[in-house]
Amino acid sequence: MVISAEEPNWSGLPGELLDRIGHRLAKLKDFIRFKAVCKSWRRALFLSRFRQSIPWLMLPHCRDSISQSARVGCKGTDSCRCFYDLEEQTFRHIELPQSIDKTCCGSAFGWVFMKEKLPSVMLLNPLSKDQISLPPITAFSDVLGFRPELVGREYLYVKQDGLRVAKGKKQVQRRFIIRVSFSGEPASEECIVMVIRGFDDCTTLAFCSPNRDDKWTIIPHGGNNPDLPNEILFEDMVFWRGRFYVFVYTGTVYVCDLSHQHCPKLSLFLDESSPQTRKIFRGATSFYLLTSPVDDELMVITRHLRYPNDDLVAVNTHHVRYQENEDDDGVANDDEWSDDSDYADDDGQTTDDDDHDDELPVFVPYKDDGHGKVDRYIIDSESDDDDVIAADKTPLLTDKFRVFKARECRTGWDEVDSIGDFALFLGYNKPTWVSTRDHPELSPNSIYFTDDATGSHYPRKFAGADMGVYDLTTHTISPFYRTASVHKNPSLIFPLPVWISPSNY
């Protein structure tokens, strides 16, 4: 007797069961394979929230930088984007035509903030490929217009002092929006996107709701807020306990009150009172404001760059100007655009503001007493001092990180020497903590960092290569990703890599 058994109807499994299975999937590759079985399985996982606990490294398009050794699995199209999976030590390839010719200056909750040379900006989820349009660059009240025919001077921008200047589209794409922070999931109705933006020696804050607003709201300070200085150099921000907190390189923290959206306020939250700590902060080149993983308190990480030459160290990037290379973009004169307003420099002369970027970064000799006390002085770029060297000859590299925690009394910061059994991922992304107990393949008490010092890399000969793992115990740096074996040009990875936490929502 022959017994015929029916083939199992895998597509008919109950949705509730599939959903429970989906929530137990620990790796992204398993999640993707699960969804690929059939339509019913894919529908069942539509609401299953997956987020990779160990971030991926989002790299340039394969056609731009990736060598043949990393092309396995790549479809060979111009829109194929490469991701480095740190957990699996392998490359992933995703078709992302939405990211062509765009750069990223922020990521959180699985979404990346994308900028392009045109005024439009957007949020992109690389895994689900969903997009959320944000108000364009021209929706800032101090951006007066955009004219693509004026090559090298496409944007008309008004400074805080009322002077109007022309900005090139490449300069705006790379440097106008500096940092991005999210109050929550970008797809939610309540989400607010906050940005640090601006040029020259002053930055401002602006925010919008991705799902409600068609313009950016600028948070005033200076003349509109007499309790605050006219010029503030915001470095980084974090959404903490229902509000955005913003860090200034001197150690000061401001808090944003958005309870009345049409009348946002900025007020002092923490003022560093220790001259020694202020000195350390002034010696850093990058800052990351975040919250601690255990007790949810404010922390700040300082990043210190230096040349490979032991005698030279970088001055804080806000104190010097950088050479802006607009590549093949020339400067076009247009009487109508010029007549619309005068572009005046600080001396009252009409100007294309890109002319200010002809100077190179300045670096000076320094002495370290072994306790991080560094004496640094800014040398004018016109100086004949032999210690001033050009930035396009030697790459800037990370020397060290230092970790500080806010005092409970909000009077300043205390340095801490360990982050315990955690690995911290830093760069353009929202700082991400990962438990090394749950993921022993990661190094404890270490910082996994990417290159995010955009300004210090013009003319971009060494952009992107400053990546690695900084061990806070041994104060050493080791590679997690070897650029020399992956990229055609080991000294250039552009657009800059960024950590993302892959998410399907």
From TrEMBL:
Acidic residues: compositionally biased ranges: 325-360
Leader peptide range in chain numbering: none
SUPFAM superfamilies, alphabetized: F-box domain (SSF81383)
Domain named KIB1-4 beta-propeller: residues: 83-471
InterPro entries: F-box-like_dom_sf (IPR036047), F-box_BR-signaling (IPR050942), KIB1-4_b-propeller (IPR005174)
Region (Disordered): 323-360
Name assigned to this protein: KIB1-4 beta-propeller domain-containing protein
